[in-house]
Write a structure and sequence with these properties.
globular, 414 residues, mainly alpha, disordered N terminus, disordered C terminus
Length: 414
């Protein structure tokens, strides 16, 4: 190990090239993991319909996928720091793959909810392991590629997953599709050692699972300012993202008389611009400060949310969709880089666990509040509230800068 480190120090260009190769391999693994999730989500939804699940049961099945992740994300972070990401990734991937094989034999929506809950719990081990590995790699190759983690996963899950699911269902039916999902899990486990062997565990960050440790993990949010800012931002990003994805179709069909294909196009437009920004932020991060990117992101999200809330014509929906994706993409890159910085100090597993908890929590709350407001008032009103949230974040950032400038300090203290 020392020889390798000495060689990298003597040849920094070769060392950076090796790190980028490791990151490229990891991103391919991440894309394949996202593909398996995308296939599983589509097949699960159609299988629930096959079981003649009603609207409430469909909502329960969809919600159960997030509940398991929320329950296990923090313990998964401790386990990753204790045993390493490779072992946890292997356990989570194999267990979820085996459970998926059992789904075609289930003919009850109640049992289906139970098994999906178990799958999502094991899936947390996989998600947190991937997050910990990526945070460490970003600390080595720089913030310019921080958006690639989320982007490659989304490409696999949202773009390739539905296509693959349609092909599998058309050729092999539900049973064959779940065999394919299980087989993908096996492929992931076989590839994982080649990627995770580059992960360097820190003795200082090794922890033992306990209630006290879980409480300490949550307490970090209060004691670490950069982590607190990153968690707040991730919570808000996912709240907006999930609300938009879930309700924009309803808004477009009911208020603008879109057909289902046109309404789904609004989701695609926002998703494509979001992914493109995640992939293309490398150039911006080399020319702009993190705080400037953060403020631009907040401003774009606030403006796009206002456009969506005030939309009276079709073109306003399309404009709001594209610009919302751009703004959220900018903010997401900064959030991931901030998490990576804190992870280097506090432990990648610990911070990856918090990330996996905060994001879904924001998504659930965004949909819950949006649904309540939509029930009592109008779904579009929610976009004005979202704009207000990001304007508040922007003003807080500007006031903080002014506070430090008065003390002749020209950088944001983290």
């Amino acid at each position: 190990m020392k020889d390798a480190q000495s060689l990298a120090a003597a040849h920094p260009i070769n060392g950076l090239k090796e790190q980028r190769n490791v990151l490229a391999g990891f991103l391919c693994l991440n894309a394949l993991a996202g593909l398996s999730v995308g296939v599983a989500k589509v097949v699960l939804s159609l299988y629930a319909v096959e079981l003649q699940a009603d609207a409430f049961q469909l909502a329960m099945i969809a919600g159960t996928q997030s509940v398991g992740i929320l329950l296990m994300s923090l313990p998964a972070g401790v386990l990753v720091d204790q045993y390493g990401p490779l072992r946890m990734f292997t356990i989570g991937t194999l267990a979820s793959g085996v459970l998926y094989l059992a789904v075609p034999w289930i003919d009850s929506t109640t049992l289906l909810c139970l098994i999906i809950l178990l799958i999502s719990c094991f899936m947390s081990l996989r998600i947190v392991s991937l997050g910990a590995m990526f945070m460490q790699q970003i600390g080595r190759v720089g913030v310019g590629m921080s958006g690639w983690f989320r982007a490659t996963h989304m490409v696999g899950m949202l773009l390739l997953g539905p296509i693959a699911a349609a092909l599998l269902l058309g050729s092999f039916g539900f049973a064959g599709s779940y065999v394919a999902i299980g087989s993908t899990s096996l492929v992931l486990v076989l590839l994982a050692p080649f990627i995770f062997r580059h992960y360097e565990s820190s003795v200082a960050h090794v922890r033992t699972i306990s209630l006290a440790e879980l409480r300490a993990q949550i307490a970090l949010i209060g004691s670490d300012k950069l982590l607190r800012d990153a968690c707040l931002q991730e919570f808000c990003i996912q709240a907006v993202n999930q609300f938009y994805t879930f309700f924009i179709v309803v808004i477009a069909i009911q208020a603008f008389l879109f057909d289902p294909a046109q309404a789904a196009g609004l989701i695609s437009a926002q998703g494509v611009s979001y992914v493109m920004m995640l992939l293309g932020m490398g150039t911006l991060t080399s020319r702009m400060s993190e705080q400037l990117i953060f403020r631009c992101g907040c401003l774009i999200v606030a403006c796009s949310s206002t456009v969506l809330g005030a939309a009276a014509e079709d073109w306003m929906l399309w404009l709001g969709a594209v610009t919302l994706g751009l703004g959220l993409g900018m903010l997401q890159v900064m959030t991931i880089s901030w998490f990576a910085k804190v992870g280097a100090r506090r432990g990648q597993g610990r911070i990856a666990g918090l990330t996996t908890f905060v994001g879904p929590a924001g998504g659930l709350l965004g949909c819950a509040i949006g649904g309540a407001i939509g029930h009592w008032f109008n779904l579009q009103v929610m976009f004005f509230l979202m704009a207000l949230v990001f304007i508040t974040l922007l003003l807080t950032s500007l006031r903080r800068m002014d506070f430090f400038q008065k003390r002749d300090t020209y950088s944001i203290k983290e």
